[in-house]
Amino acid sequence: MAVAAVLVATLAGTAAGAGARVLLHRLRRGARVPPPWCEVTVAVVWGATGGAWAAGAVPPGWLPALLGLGWFAVAAGTVDVLHRRLPDALTLPALPAAVLLVVPVGAGAVLRAVIGAGVAMGVHAVVHLVAPRAMGAGDVKLAAPLGAVLAAASWPALVLAALLAAVLSGVVAAVGLVTRRLARGAAVPHGPSMLLAAWVVVAAAAATTPSG
Question: What is the reported pTM?
Answer without folding.
Answer: 0.93
